[in-house]
Design a protein that fits this description.
Length: 326
């Protein structure tokens, strides 16, 4: 089923390459993908083993989710801690979904931390080494995606999603805000790009939830913990306003629709001094519990890197940026 469905995945440039002249490509172009940027179906890995940052500063790339200021507030205390223990300056380099690939390819970073979807693709392309995984309060090293509808909706099962209006954060780069759900639906015989009446991107998970509540869209894709965060911030009256479709039957702290995947990793860029890699790994594994730097980063502790193989399969199935790099 998945093998057949993958040929329908709606990344315009890929569809043009794979299905030239076939009407499906036209259908997708007229429906779900009107505002979507084309994917890069093939990326040539760059050998960075000979490239090194010239000065003594350790440069750590951190993916920007909300803003540069937010990234600095969350991660600068952690880099200050590393600098104090290792006795070497650490510099925080905020990176975007696009620039993180360039920074690694050009050898401008020693370490990275980013969402696992991007991290795995960078590893596939540039042979980075996963060292540690973030373990967050209450949920540990896992997270997943939700598919939400209004409680009074007539949508009860995944099969009821056909013909509905939906939104997610970003088709190709948002892990639990989109791609986990797309993959989950494909595994269940539903292609959101073909089967939804409309499927659009909305960069704000807050707005996605609010649009579901207000009836502007039927379906929203969000990550675990998003509803509870909005409730705590007063952005959501109560959780009874929404229903999570076909939630997983497990003991995970948050209700979720998709499988669970490993949290953000910390990776060493190829060519980074092995002694520095060992020092950073050891320091973060042994950072004191309840240290303020952990609290600032919303991390409980660091654990040895999880197995990220499930993301490789997702990337290859959805034909994302590095789908053919291995």
């Amino acid at each position: 089923m998945i093998k057949n469905l993958v040929n329908l995945i709606s990344y315009p440039k890929i569809l043009i390459n794979l299905l030239t002249g076939v009407s499906i490509g036209l259908i997708l172009g007229l429906t779900a993908c009107e505002d979507k940027k084309p994917a890069n179906p093939s990326v040539t890995p760059v050998d960075t083993s000979h490239q090194q940052v010239s000065d003594n500063t350790v440069r750590v790339g951190v993916l920007t989710i909300d803003s540069v200021d937010s990234v600095k507030q969350r991660y600068q205390p952690l880099l200050n801690y590393l600098s104090g223990v290792i006795n070497r300056p650490f510099s925080l380099v905020p990176v975007t979904q696009e620039s993180q690939f360039i920074e690694v390819a050009q050898g401008n970073l020693h370490f990275t931390t980013n969402n696992p979807l991007a991290a795995v693709q960078i590893r596939r392309l540039y042979d980075t080494e996963f060292l540690l995984t973030h373990s967050r309060p209450q949920v540990g090293t896992k997270f997943g995606g939700l598919i939400i509808v209004r409680t009074d909706s007539n949508i009860y099962k995944l099969k009821d999603l056909r013909g509905k209006k939906a939104a997610c954060v970003a088709f190709q780069t948002a892990a639990a805000g989109c791609t986990f759900q797309i993959y989950h639906l494909l595994q269940n015989g539903i292609d959101p790009f073909l089967d939804f009446s409309s499927f659009v991107e909305n960069k704000s998970q807050d707005k996605i939830v609010q649009e579901v509540v207000n009836g502007k869209i039927d379906v929203g894709f969000i990550r675990t913990g998003q509803l509870e965060k909005m409730l705590n911030q007063g952005l959501l009256e109560n959780l009874e306003q929404l229903r999570i479709l076909e939630s997983g039957n497990d003991k995970f702290f948050y209700t979720h629709t998709t499988d669970l995947y490993p949290e953000w990793p910390i990776a060493a860029v190829k060519g980074t001094d092995p002694q520095l890699v060992a020092a950073v790994t050891d320091t973060l594994l042994n950072i004191p519990a309840n240290h303020p730097a952990l609290a600032a980063a919303k991390i409980e502790k660091f654990l040895p890197a999880e197995d990220y193989g499930s993301l490789d399969k997702l990337i290859e199935t959805l034909r994302l940026k590095s789908w053919n790099a291995k």
